[in-house]
Design goal:
The chain is an all-alpha fold and about 290 residues long. It is built from 17 helices and no strands. The protein starts with 9 loop residues before the first helix and ends with a helix.
Length: about 290
């Protein structure tokens, strides 16, 4: 891409960043791309398939002759497709990261960060992402620091992103995540960012959940519920929508067990499912102790 020229992948990237995964796939036939842009386009398309849960398609379509970024994306699909694959994908990942020829590839480092974040090994994730280099890596750093409850470090990453491109979709998203973590008067600012997205782009589960979380934190649970039900219409298995509906229903005094059942069936590893299970086991133990 010529320096300062328009980015031919701009629309595709925004669709992906804002959770319009099917739109990213449908609109990926972009003419006259350079080889480098074509590889980046393919990584975004395959990451969209991963986000939609089509792991096997990605595993089947990316063969061993594909470019490093695509091989890295295939590793992510393998890692997410089955718990049995975790060990082998992590050892392949470590091997590639240690290879001087490809170890510094930004997509490989990004995928490493995503996988180690899933493993909740945040220090290992930062080893590969902390040097930054791309907006995706900076945005992932913001997420990792927020998971570590280090909003001060997350804010430093956000400042770097704002210096590079203040209007970038990822800069805006990172700003909203940080505002939600800080809370207080910042929640209204986060809401306005998601509101702005919803006016400019197609409404997605990601945008609706963003607005709904702001509403819940501001105590407007009725509005949050209607946003979440709209998100559920778009994707009935989205884990964040289901988890947020469980919390929202409890606050509204409505039954939440159906949403928790759906979440347990489709995403048994979700933190809310694990917490509910732990609470249930503690309750059972207490009942037996007092019996």
């Amino acid at each position: 891409m010529a320096a300062g020229g328009p980015d031919p992948l701009f629309g595709l990237k925004n669709s992906f960043y804002l959770g319009a995964y099917q739109a990213a796939i449908n609109n990926s036939d972009i003419p006259n791309l350079s080889t480098e842009d074509a590889v980046e386009r393919d990584t975004l398309v395959y990451r969209s398939y991963i986000a939609l849960g089509s792991y096997q398609l990605v595993i089947n379509e990316i063969d061993s002759s594909a470019a490093t970024p695509l091989q890295a994306v295939k590793l992510l699909a393998l890692y997410l497709s089955s718990p049995d694959n975790k060990e082998i994908t992590i050892s392949s990942l470590q091997e590639w990261l240690g290879d001087p020829a490809i170890g510094n590839n930004p997509i490989l480092r990004l995928i490493a960060g995503i996988i180690f974040m899933h493993e909740q090994d945040y220090n290992e994730a930062l080893k590969h992402t902390n040097a930054g280099g791309t907006m995706d890596l900076h945005a992932l750093n913001v997420q990792i620091f927020l998971k570590m409850h280090r909003s001060d470090y997350a804010e430093k990453q956000l400042r770097i992103m704002q210096q590079i491109d203040e209007d970038h979709a990822l800069t805006q998203l990172a700003n909203a995540w940080l505002n939600l973590a800080v809370g207080g008067s910042k929640i209204q600012e986060a809401y306005l960012i998601f509101q702005d997205f919803s006016e400019k782009y197609q409404m997605t589960s990601l945008i609706l959940n963003g607005k709904a979380v702001c509403c819940m934190l501001m105590g407007t649970f009725d509005e949050a519920e209607s946003l979440l039900l709209e998100a559920l219409n778009k994707d009935a298995k989205d884990p964040e929508t289901l988890a947020n509906l469980v919390v929202c229903s409890l606050h509204l005094g409505k039954p939440s067990s159906r949403y928790l059942s759906q979440l347990t069936l489709s995403h048994p590893d979700h933190i809310l499912v694990k917490r509910a299970k732990t609470a249930e086991e503690s309750f059972d133990r207490a009942v037996q102790t007092n019996a």
